[in-house]
Design the sequence.
């Protein structure tokens, strides 16, 4: 298993910000999405290994030793079942068209935010991270309207964990969007601070006000496929990398354990 750790002096949980003696390993993306097998990894943006190890091969998934056991259990028990239901339904759908799911979209959004917080090798947070942390720790806290969340069909056999990148068309900084991206065959989950995709893909911003435990019916269009490398490598946009974007991972999936 590839485990990304923090500086040995940083023993503060990224989620609750409490000091702990031993940090726990959180699979990002969650183990329930198939992040439990073998593959080859590299850094998304520099094409250099992100860890000094003998090879670029990983097994048993990718995880981060950045949160405490309590917060790890919280993510698993409170949110990961909702993410698992979404992932499993899409992965095992035999027809590539609209499918109806009965899921907890608000819980999926909050769980994804929590895993983004875990996928950072420091407890020092950006403004967006603070919002993610608050939404994860306090499920009764209403997700702000500035959160735009997309679930898009992405049948590429790889894992991508991308943090803190800014995309803008040309030099128009007024239209710049900050993106955080998780991709794992067959879905991509993307959070932006603005409606990045316009009306082309469904924006889950409409689910920010519903209760995190409420199940509703959603129609997901599996014919809408995210183009390869979109949005992080889309040549139509100028890309700026945040301080921790250089830790972003691209990993092929050679073999899943289940």
Sequence:
């Amino acid at each position: 298993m590839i485990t990304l750790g923090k500086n040995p002096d940083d023993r503060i949980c990224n989620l609750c910000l409490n000091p702990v003696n031993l940090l726990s390993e959180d699979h990002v993306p969650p183990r329930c999405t198939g992040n439990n097998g073998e593959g080859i990894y590299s850094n998304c943006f520099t094409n250099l290994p992100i860890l000094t190890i003998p090879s670029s091969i990983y097994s048993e998934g990718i995880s981060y030793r950045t949160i405490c056991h309590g917060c790890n259990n919280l993510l698993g028990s409170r949110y990961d079942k909702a993410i698992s239901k979404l992932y499993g339904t899409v992965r095992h759908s035999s027809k590539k068209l609209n499918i109806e799911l009965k899921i907890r979209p608000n819980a999926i959004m909050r769980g994804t935010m929590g895993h983004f917080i875990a996928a950072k090798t420091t407890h020092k947070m950006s403004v967006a991270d603070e919002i993610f942390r608050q939404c994860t720790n306090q499920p009764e806290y209403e997700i702000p309207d500035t959160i735009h969340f997309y679930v898009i069909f992405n049948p590429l056999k790889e894992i991508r964990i991308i943090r803190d990148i800014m995309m803008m068309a040309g030099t128009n900084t007024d239209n710049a969007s900050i993106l955080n991206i998780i991709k794992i065959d067959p879905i991509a989950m993307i959070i932006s601070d603005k409606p990045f995709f316009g009306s082309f893909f469904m924006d889950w911003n409409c689910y920010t006000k519903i209760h995190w435990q409420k199940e509703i019916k959603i129609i997901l269009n599996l014919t809408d496929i995210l183009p390869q490398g979109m949005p992080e490598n889309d040549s139509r946009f100028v890309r700026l990398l945040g301080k921790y974007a250089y830790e972003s991972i691209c990993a092929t999936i050679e073999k899943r354990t289940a």
